[in-house]
Amino acid sequence: MTETTAETSAEETIKTGKPELPKDVRVRFCPSPTGTPHVGMVRTALFNWAEARHAHGTFVFRIEDTDNVRDSEESYDQILDALDWLHLDWDEGVNVGGPDGPYKQSERGDIYRDVAKKLMDAGYAYESFSTPEEVQARNLAAGRPKEFGYDGFDRNLSEEQKATFRAQGRKPALRVKMPDEDIAFDDLIRGHIEFKAGSVPDYVIVRPNGDPLYTLTNPVDDALMRINVVLRGEDLLSSTPRQVVLYRYLVKLGIAQGMPQFGHLPYVMGKGNKKLSKRDPESNLFLHRENGFIPEGLLNYLALLGWSIAPDHDVFTMDEMVEKFDVRDVKANPAHFDIDKAVAINAEHIRMLDPQDFINRSVPYLQRDGVVSADSWESLDDDERRILTAAAPLVQSRVRLLGEVSGMVGSLLSKADYIEPEDDAKKQLKDSAADVLAKAIEVLEGVDEAAGDWEAESLHGLLDKALVEDGGYKPRLAYGPVRVALSGRRVSPPLFESMQIVGKEITLARLKGLAGHLFELK
Fold first, then answer.
1. What domains sit in the chain, N to C, each tagged with a CATH number?
2. Nearest Cα to 414, choosing from 458, 456, 370?
3. Catalytic residue chosen out of the listed positions 278, 324, 331, 512
4. Is residue 52 within 8 Å of 92, Cβ to Cβ?
5. 278 among the known binding-site residues?
6. Within a 10 A sphere around the Cβ of 26, how many other Cβ atoms?
7. β-strand 92-93 against 125-128: which pairing, if any?
8. In which region does residue 175 sit, left (phi positive, over 0), alpha (psi from -120 to 50) or beta (all else)?
9. CB of 422 within 8 A of CB of 489?
């Protein structure tokens, strides 16, 4: 770095309270496979991915799977599925490889044992034989709350005392020595943060049974994988002074090249201004996919949970995000998950799709809902392809989620003579419905489909004259029963284009079918 650049960087740091990013950004995403992927996890992955792509850096993906009780292979597969669906690719890590593998913590046990021994030998960590009950009892005896935390009792045990504990059958945990000084760092999002001396007790890095804890494995992996920007959730902020101290020790031991920069992403809040829980339906990534979110729409919305590309610019592509993203622009305030806004943004992205792409993405939902015969465009029959090709321009601008497409095109693909109206559609069937249907049937029966007269524009003209001009009905009363007969819905694709798609025979059959069921629908 030149002197001028260094001075500029220092000035910017003073001005913003946030340090300059390294030139060769290396970030990581390191989830634990302990449940269904949730939107908070995805947002963390997205921001790390975007920072790496913006800086032309490296995105590392590893799995923290050392919890034998909670970890599962199913959850691991779901995380991979989620990243693949969202097109969040990584440069090094699981299933990709790289120079710092293995990328599953369950396969790195020897590494952690070696580092733990080095920390012990250097005097940065020590054996601790105290049980939780003993720590609580000592706190009460000293006039402190029993939950006050570990009191440093084992720091200076003699070899004789240790031998006595071992003779009792006790096995020690391994604790890191916290220095008697304030711990401070410059957060990329929150600026300067300090933890007062004594506020963080010596903490366990290895259990008495020899299992390494997150407090050891996470920073060791970051150090050995040369991660220099750590972006993670605000809930982990309280553990950062521990990581800062351990990193100092790892640097002294030659294990780490330097201290990474930390950025703590804001909480994602749900209903009632409470932190969005993994158990909240809005948190479930795959539920959003099941409902018909597309990756572009969901990622766009998640990007807005703490960051924005520009004022009044809520809809953008991932390419646009990569171009503009800087984690230092993320707001520290909690972000609120608004499902209505998420759906609205998803609708914008659906409208941006190429029509054939829209159809291709919709087909699996249509097959799931029993509307078409196969789950891919290539496997559909010719009639299904014809109808979907004609229907796509009519419904693409009207759906917000791909899960809504079935309701819009189901009646167009159905061969049924009668479609049972939905409850809200029945409300459109006023006392005049019978007369409207009779007039519509009369005028439509005279249309020569073979001559090419069964076209949306001419059908509109015929019904407009018969029902509105001559019949005297307002358009809502004139076309409501016809729409309900054709689709069974209050909201459907454009009426006359729908009539053209299904053809004369089915149109007339449904009009007659509804007319025959009007009495029982009352």
1. 18-93+266-352 (3.40.50.620), 107-265 (3.90.800.10), 354-413 (1.10.8), 423-518 (1.10.10.350)
2. 370
3. 278
4. no
5. yes
6. 21
7. unpaired
8. beta
9. yes
3-state secondary structure of 205: strand
Residue 409, phi then psi, degrees to nearest 5: -110, -5
**pLDDT digit string (tens) for the chain, length 522 residues:** 333 333 334 455 544 556 899 999 999 999 999 989 999 999 999 999 999 999 999 999 999 998 888 889 999 999 999 999 999 999 999 999 999 999 999 999 999 999 999 999 999 999 999 999 999 999 999 999 988 889 999 999 999 999 999 999 999 999 999 999 999 999 999 999 999 999 999 999 999 999 999 999 999 999 999 999 999 999 999 999 999 999 999 999 999 999 999 999 999 999 888 899 888 888 999 999 999 999 999 999 999 999 999 999 999 999 999 999 999 999 999 999 999 999 999 999 999 999 999 999 999 999 999 999 999 999 999 999 999 999 999 999 999 999 999 999 999 999 999 999 999 999 989 999 999 999 999 999 999 999 999 999 999 999 999 999 999 999 999 999 999 999 999 999 999 999 999 999 999 999 999 999 998 886
Report pTM.
0.92
Tracing tokens 């009369």 back to the chain, one arrives at 442
Return d(Cα 262, Cα 165) in angstroms, integer. Answer: 39
116 CB-near residues (< 8 Å, 6+ apart): 125, 174, 205, 206, 212, 216
Contact 401, 343 (CB under 8 A): yes
Please say if 118 is a catalytic residue.
Answer: no
* Residue of 473, 397, 399 whose CA lies nearest to 430: 473
Judged by phi (left if over 0) then psi (alpha if -120 to 50, else beta), residue 260 lies in beta
Alpha helices in 148-292 (DSSP H): 159-167, 214-224, 240-252, 285-291
Strand locations in 177-293 (E): 183-187, 191-195, 203-206, 229-233, 261-265, 268-269
Between CA 211 and CA 218 the distance in angstroms is 14
In angstroms, rounded to a whole number, what is the distance separating the alpha carbons of residues 408 and 386?
16
